[in-house]
Structure formats: C-alpha cells, structure tokens
Amino acid sequence: MSSSTSSEPAKKVDWSATQYLKFGNERTRAVYDLLSQVIPHIESPNPRVMDLGCGPGNSTKVLLEAFPNAQIIGMDSSPDMLQRARATIPGIEFVQGDLYTFSPDPGADLLFSNAVYHWLRRDTRVPTIIRLLESQRSGGVFAFQVPDNYHQPSHFLMRETASLSGTPWSSSFSNTRIGDLEDKERPDLDPIEKPEEWYNALLPYCSSVNIWRTEYQHVLDSANGIVEWVRGTGLQPFINLLPDDKIRDAFVAEYEKRLSDVYKPLANGKVMLAYPRLFVVAVRK
C-alpha cells in the first residue's frame, strides 16, 4: 500500500506483487488470525466488505472464502498489486485508491485491512482510521493488523546501515534524518501506537475494542531470506532512494552482513525472524 501525501514515507516507485508473495503463506497467516475474531461479529449472510490495502489479493481471497456471498471490494494504491489481484480473483471488484483520501460507500459491515496502516505517519494514522470507522453502520466491524517491529533488529539495522558515514550511499540519505520522527520524508516508518493508545482512541466510537499482539517466529533459510522478506516491504523506501544498482547492492550487502551478526544460525543452519504484529477488532457503536 502506498500513497502520495507529505505525511508518508519517501515516495516509492511501486510495489512488487511477485516480491511480496515470496512469503505469501507467512504473510497470509495473520489474515486468518485476524479474521477468526471478526467472524463472530458478522451476522449478515451477504455482508458488504471492503479490503483496504488488499495488495495482491491474498487477504481478499481469505475474505471470500469466509463470506462466499459477500459483496467484496478490494482497494490498493499499487497498480502492480491490483493487476495481480484481478488476475487471481477475477470475480471481485478491485479499485485504486489512497488511504489518506479514500472514502468507502457508507454502511459497510466490515472494513478489513492487513498490514497497511504502519505506512501512515503517527499524526495521520489514528485520524485516518477514525474517519473510515465513522463511515460504518452501527454494529459494523473495523478490523486491522499492522507489523509492530520498529525496534526489531530487522528494522533498526535498516536505519543503522542507512546512517553510516563515508559509504557509497551516505549522500543518498543526507537530506533525511533517519530515526527522527519529526522528519516526515525519511524512509523509515514510525513506531506503532501502544495498545492502550488504540483502545482510548477507538472507544468513543465503538461498543467493543479487542486488541492483541502476536510475535510470529518465521524460520528462513538465512539472513538473505530476511533481506528478501523486507525487500518487499520496509526495505523498499530505503532502496528507492539509492541511485543505481551498484550502490543498492552495496547497501543491501552491508545490511545483510549486520543481520548475519544478530540472527544466529539454528541447529539446521536456518535463522528465525521474530515478527510482532498488533491486531485490532473494533465494533461500531
């Protein structure tokens, strides 16, 4: 999911559905976990469902399996993601949109979002969700999950690598303040709000707010597997600031080296990527 306002991370060229789906099973696992807490709230046999930030359609497919008679619309900002989604699920309507400005038809039974809102800056994230929540009918469900990995080695090592001085990529980041939350143009994302912040923000609009956090443990072949995982998401804004393949390769090589120092081999030589996610299921008053 990407957008084009001044409160977003550094502008991306476009997402790659192919890169994202290299770990499709692992990424979709959170969709099932989120949906398990949504299903008990959906009473309509043919609910109106909006998949916000649908990506390549992996989450949309799960929604269709759960609600086969639903009216489902998928929305994303990436043309490549939408092209893959339309090819994968030809019977579903997919539209291009931007979370900052997108307004769904009022009265949705379910607004669902898998791994999108972490791309919004903190000053716009909660207001954007409340604006969308207010479009729902009483009893409507707003459900989302976001990676909560700002402090994980996989992510702070991106910031550390980008902040090194005297490297071929140093000048590419000289106009950004990596890790400074006041710099809205920096490539690194903002930390996710704490559960109590979400609860307090959503409670005035909701009859119930269910929040939980899960730390997944993904076993990958090597530190390069971690690179390939984040290359489809959080690493992309850093890479997009680099001017050519030679510098990009040097940056990624240094990042991978630092990952190897932290993520030690398991008994079978593989590595374990800890990946925390925050889940919210809110029911509109």
UniProtKB/TrEMBL annotation:
Say which domain of life the source belongs to: Eukaryota
Q: Name one GO molecular function term.
A: trans-aconitate 2-methyltransferase activity
The protein's matches in InterPro entries, at most eight in alphabetical order, are given as: Methyltransf_25 (IPR041698), SAM-dependent_MTases_sf (IPR029063), Trans_acon_MeTrfase_C (IPR023149)
Q: Does the keyword Transferase apply?
A: yes
Pfam families in alphabetical order: Methyltransf_25
Q: Name one GO biological process term.
A: methylation
Stretches assigned to the Methyltransferase domain: 49-134
What are the alphabetically sorted keywords of the record? Methyltransferase, Transferase
Name by which UniProt lists this protein: S-adenosyl-L-methionine-dependent methyltransferase
Give the organism, scientific name.
Zopfia rhizophila CBS 207.26
Its lineage opens with: Eukaryota, Fungi, Dikarya, Ascomycota, Pezizomycotina
